[in-house]
Design a protein that fits this description.
globular, about 35% helix, binds nicotinamide-adenine-dinucleotide, single chain, Aldehyde Dehydrogenase, Chain A, domain 1, 2 domains, 6-stranded mixed beta sheet, alpha/beta, about 475 residues, 7-stranded mixed beta sheet, Aldehyde Dehydrogenase, Chain A, domain 2
């Protein structure tokens, strides 16, 4: 298992030689050790990224950046199967999901789309000639887009490659340098990536630095350093708020991809039984996905039919060993997360919701941090389980009176990341989608995902967009230039 940090182009141990354990959440066994970076390591990484940005031609050399992104793509593909095994072992991610969003899907385009956009991006645009201040002096003006500088990239453990690649691609394509801080739980994947960057690409020393650390707070070096120009963060809303506070001391912009509590709205013109037959898919990857819909909104007069269909779908779900291709749900990533999810289930019961199925730790799985796929019915949207992000296989069925009420409930949330609308009438579905305060919405099963598709949240779900043109622009500065016409 890879274990080194990548600082200034070199694969190194932590400066104090420290290591920390990497645990497989399905077997509960230690599968390896990773260098435990310190604040001093993080500071060295920031200094390297600063130097690479300020003193090399990385920020201006489009051809080099394009070439390096394609090299990185090839390097990752050369160990794609090893990445797959790492992700199953350290995240507990089911094998099948690695063929989709966990690895293969982002690998198709997260680096290559931004690489191609280097040539197509509107780096300079004319805003025309003007007597700008009304004194009879004609000026020609242009708006220039420039790299922003050193980016602090902080990522979570649930989709480590998907999130890392969708940040690295745009960050590097736009000409920035960076320091990546992976989540402690998924440091081996990050260490493999670091080795490939060092050994199989011409990415110049200091352009990408990767510092793993068991202590979350090592990441504070990135949020407080005057040498970091922007923090790009994916993680929980609580940490996002803390990062924004820390960044305020240096007036650093922050780009935050945070949590969600997304709703699926099943309008009254759909076949409710059929629509709810796939309700359990929200338990995929143990519910450890920020955009997973965890509130299912159904018409009150069809509630019993909906609850029965959803319960049946939960009863027919395969979960367990993530190496088994039949399972779409593995363990929670850690004992801490398992305990957290179980705590929310208890809270749901205490507040009066009813467990239709699941509700505990599965008895047939002897090791691993598993939680039963759990369906709550008789849920009021004001309950804790309907308001807070659980990040587990816990789904709520909530009744609404009419279309207006469904929209009100969907929007009655601190979050606004994603959701779905299902209707027998596509145009009606789109009208409802337009009124949901969330950054991404699927209508009738449509999928919004892609390297060219902006992703992010309203409200407590974040600030800024990853991917798409918006996700390139966020890593640029804007300079307006004028000269005599
Ligand atoms: P987390 O917020 O606990 O940690 C995320 C990262 O931040 C980790 O690398 C962690 O070490 C680091 N960190 C923690 N405290 C820090 C601090 N004070 N300063 C700097 N860095 C710090 O989140 P998690 O438990 O790793 O991931 C789960 C969360 O991520 C969920 O809330 C989920 O919704 C969210 N998420 C959001 C998206 C999205 O795109 N919107 C995608 C995936 C996950």
């Amino acid at each position: 298992m890879d274990q080194k940090l990548l600082i200034d182009g070199k694969l190194v141990d932590a400066e104090n030689g420290a290591l920390f354990d990497n645990v497989n959440p399905a077997t509960e066994e230690v599968i390896g050790q990773v260098a435990n970076g310190s604040r001093a390591d993080m500071e060295a990484a920031v200094a390297a990224a600063r130097r690479a940005f300020d003193t090399t031609d990385w920020s201006t050399n489009h051809a080099l950046r394009k070439e390096c992104l394609h090299q990185l793509q090839a390097a990752i593909e050369s160990e794609q199967e090893e990445f797959r095994q790492d992700l199953i072992a350290e995240v507990g991610c089911p094998l099948l999901i690695t063929y989709g969003p966990q690895l293969d899907a982002p690998l198709r385009e997260a680096l290559t789309w931004p690489a191609e956009m280097i040539d197509r991006f509107e780096w300079r645009r004319s805003i025309g000639e003007a007597d700008a201040m009304g004194v009879g002096y004609q000026t020609e003006r242009e708006v220039w887009k420039e790299p922003l500088g050193v980016i602090g990239v902080i990522v979570p453990w649930n989709f480590p490659m998907e999130i890392t690649l969708n940040k690295l691609g745009p960050v590097l394509a736009m000409g920035n340098t960076c320091v990546l801080k992976p989540a402690p739980d998924t440091s081996a994947t990050a260490a493999r990536l670091g080795r490939l960057i060092a050994e199989k690409t011409d990415i110049p020393a200091g352009v990408v630095n990767i510092v793993s650390s068991q202590d979350h707070l090592t990441g504070e070096v990135l949020t407080t350093s005057p040498d970091v120009d922007l923090v790009a963060f994916t993680g929980s809303s609580a940490t996002g708020k803390r990062i924004m506070e820390a960044a305020a001391s240096t007036l650093k912009p922050v780009f935050l991809e945070l949590g969600g509590k997304s709703a699926n709205i099943y309008l009254d013109d759909v076949d409710i039984s059929q629509a709810l037959a796939s309700a359990v898919t929200s338990c995929m990857h143990g519910g450890q996905g920020c955009a997973i819909p965890t509130r299912l909104l159904v018409p009150r007069d069809r509630y019993d039919e909906a609850a029965a269909a959803a319960t049946e779908s939960f009863a027919n779900w395969n979960y367990g060993d993530p190496t088994d291709a039949n399972n779409l749900q593995g363990p929670q990533v850690s004992k801490k997360q398992q305990d957290r999810v179980l705590g929310y289930i208890q809270k749901g019961i205490d507040e009066g919701a009813r467990v239709a199925i699941g509700g505990g730790v599965p008895s047939h799985l002897e090791t691993g941090y598993y939680v039963e796929p759990t369906l709550f019915v008789d849920v009021d949207n004001s309950m804790t389980i309907a308001q807070e992000e659980i990040f587990g296989p816990v789904i709520c069925v909530i009744a609404y009176e009419d279309e207006e009420d469904a929209i009100r409930i969907a929007n009655d949330s601190d979050f606004g990341l994603s959701g779905n609308v299902f209707s027998g009438d596509l145009e009606r579905g789109k009208r409802v989608a337009a009124r949901i305060r969330a950054g991404t919405i699927g209508v009738n099963g449509g999928v919004w995902y892609g390297a060219d598709a902006p992703f992010g949240g309203y409200k407590n779900s974040g600030i800024g967009r990853q991917c798409g043109i918006e996700g390139l622009e966020i890593f640029t500065e804007t300079k307006t230039v004028g000269w005599p016409a």
